[in-house]
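Predict structure. Chain length: 662.
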Amino acid sequence: MPGFRIALRTMLMASALAGGAAAQAQGGVIAFPAAHFAEARPADAYDMIRRLPGFTLIEGDEDVRGLAGARGNVLFNGRAPSGKQESLAALLRRIPAASVERIELIRGGAGGIDMAGYDVVANVVRVQASRARAAIEAGAATASDGNVRPNLSIEGSRQSGATRIEGALALTTEVDDDSGHGTIVETDADGAVTGVEQRRAWEVERVLSASGEYQTALAGGEITANANVGRERTTEAVLSDGELSAERETLWRGEIGGRYVRDAGGGRIEAVILQRAGWLRGVAEQEDERFSEATNTRESIARVDYRRERGRLSFNAGIEGALNRLDSAAALEQGGVTLPLPGSAVEVSERRAEAVAGLSWRPRTGLTIEPSLRTELSSIRAEGDLAAQHLSFLYWKPRLAASLSRGSSQVRLVVERSVGQLDFNDFVASASLDRGEVSAGAAALRPPRTWSAAATFEQRFWEDGALILSYRYERIDDVIDRVAVVSDDGIFDAVGNIGRGTRHVGRAELTLPFARLGLPGLQLRGALTLLHSRVTDPETGQRRIISKDRPVEGEIGIVHDLPGGRWSWGADLSLAHRESQFRFDQVRTERKGIALGVYVEFRPAAAWRLRLEAANLTGRTLSEVREDHDGPRALGPVQSLETLRIDTTPIFMFSVRRSFGG
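Prediction complete.
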């Protein structure tokens, strides 16, 4: 039993060191007042969130249909954003630090708070005082190609009592971190080199966006209206031994929505409506080959939630309805002749409804038990050049969560059933001409259904320190992976279901402050995720990892706010990782090496901020090995091996920010 005794002593020592943080906690909620971040002189709420011990920002997923599963893990005055298009980082950057009263770290649940399925969420509480402020930020980015790409943002807000108005304009340019130079080496089944190509791949994305929000009191409640429009233009050029492959894609997106909140029936009712639309046009060309795509999407959402607290018990119920539609037309041409491609003309629509009811019970101090039940009803219709599909689903999604806080320690347990959404784009054909890949639209799909059980242990220490250990087990029915689609024109690779799978995920997170070690303002963060999954390969019948699962992921970061508040510097290190994808006639394994990013920030005055940043400073190595078979993998032997190696480009950025007002 020596290992157990050592572990017990370690936990007791950590508990003894944690007195400062425990004094700030009330059950599962830890409040960090604005003064807690004062030494770092943060510019905005994003700077404050980045320094929140034991918290990792998780962005929402705007591609998830509806609102229930699309939210991130940050709330604003106890409520999630009413839109989906803007990132949490962008919203946080628009809130000046002077407008933040406190940030609450909610662990395991709290009365009146929608955790949206997360164990931990951060709640940014704004100051209610009247104020006006604005900011302008200008900068540039460059990479090894020598081109200088501008960035510009202008934002402003005004608050007077219960009325707040804010808006933002932004132009950003990003170089994809997989851009760079390298080689492709081809070998035959015997290992003899049959070809070597020099390769240069470069991808640049330019985004122009405008957004606005208006909030005021109305009829005893609060109403918020928001609008957002943006254009994303992506260009990619791949040069292999003088042969150019070019891709151009333009995506227009817009959304408009509103939210109304007021007290009713002893509780609080919240209603949200949202309308979104997108228009995508893309073209890929290589010699005499051409692939084009035109896709339009629409989404309409309406949601109503009701919450009520009564002593140690709180109740919540909600209902959501969503209408979604995708129309896509794709064409593959060679020498001016259109080639057959399953899934090249597709219309997909969905009518979706979800109802939820749940309780949050606190039988005693430090203990929270939260049972809930969601019911999802979905009707999907897919039509086009593939056989028409009409899929109807009714799923029950129970969830039971419990958290126990004692001193500076907390244990969280969750058992739940979740149902994934079908990606409309999986019904649409796609192509990557520079690698000779063509994928058909999915012929038949079912959403994956998962039973999972998770346990998390969290230990707070040294006021700003945190150690979080978690484990999750998943049993997945109808895993979505890659399958072969057989048509009169041949066999194509496509997305499809391949049966039952399992997944084990372990994660460790550490936030380590150095103030007690004589280095105030220095904070080290680290996270390591280990994953093991298994599913039966539909081609070989053997057990293997699920496509695109990463067995190991990790990152280490350091932030140092120097005394005086004028200078800060930091570094982030992403560990190497790999992932594999299994097509019916090919196995592809991608590896990415270590990537290092560093920055330094200077604040000559409260209203000025200068930042110099280098991303991917080490020029991480990207490698991809493709094992091509002569036909299906179970029948055809290995025909060739293609190894791509790219030394990616470092990216350098400089920006100047000027703030006005409070």
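Summary: The two ends are 59 Å apart (CA to CA).
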